[in-house]
Amino acid sequence: MPRKVVQGPIRDKEKTKQKLLAAVGKILRTKGYSGLKVSKIAAVAGFDKKLIYEYFGSTEKLIDEYIRSQDYWSKMNQDNIHVDFSDGGKELSKVAILNQFEHIKKNKELQKIILWGLSESKPILKKVADEREEMGEMLFTNIVDPHFKDKATRYRAIAALLVSGAYYLNLYTAHNASVFCGIDLKSDEGRKEIEKAITEIIDFAYEER
């Protein structure tokens, strides 16, 4: 049986693209967003910068693709969340926000992206933020709002506090002190307390409907 050929232009191109994307992540992690220059990305990846333009069209599009690959909520949809929606989104809310809380802790590059979005106004970041909102709107409109009816906006406000809290607590403890409101968020016990609070708040919101 002939040996399968795995090398070639298509495979090599994909490997090169992945190395360029990985270079963006490495620079973000070590130098921050100010280090995302075309020459620096090419050097870290070990390629000529012409390949960035050839494979992505521009440095901005390369960075855009990387950010999309890391953003938690932009990748969220009804197909990749395996929970029962018949409870009006209660389990969905728990799984989504608890997973977000853990995902941000582990993803140092995403932490840098979030900080970047808080400190600068960039079309790349605005576009991802808009797509994040579109995904959230789809989940709210199709699953949560029909359950809460005239109280749907109130639950959206609760979700906003929980989501933003999951962002902030991870960013604060990653870059400053580990203790917040007397809870050590760098300990498993401390993080479990936050997770229990998230679950209890969601349960309370659904009970009070």
UniProtKB/TrEMBL annotation:
<feature type="domain" description="HTH tetR-type">
    <location>
        <begin position="14"/>
        <end position="74"/>
    </location>
</feature>
<dbReference type="InterPro" id="IPR009057">
    <property type="entry name" value="Homeodomain-like_sf"/>
</dbReference>
<feature type="DNA-binding region" description="H-T-H motif">
    <location>
        <begin position="37"/>
        <end position="56"/>
    </location>
</feature>
<dbReference type="GO" id="GO:0003677">
    <property type="term" value="F:DNA binding"/>
</dbReference>
<dbReference type="Pfam" id="PF00440">
    <property type="entry name" value="TetR_N"/>
</dbReference>
<dbReference type="InterPro" id="IPR001647">
    <property type="entry name" value="HTH_TetR"/>
</dbReference>
<protein>
    <submittedName>
        <fullName>TetR/AcrR family transcriptional regulator</fullName>
    </submittedName>
</protein>
<keyword id="KW-0238">DNA-binding</keyword>
<dbReference type="InterPro" id="IPR050109">
    <property type="entry name" value="HTH-type_TetR-like_transc_reg"/>
</dbReference>
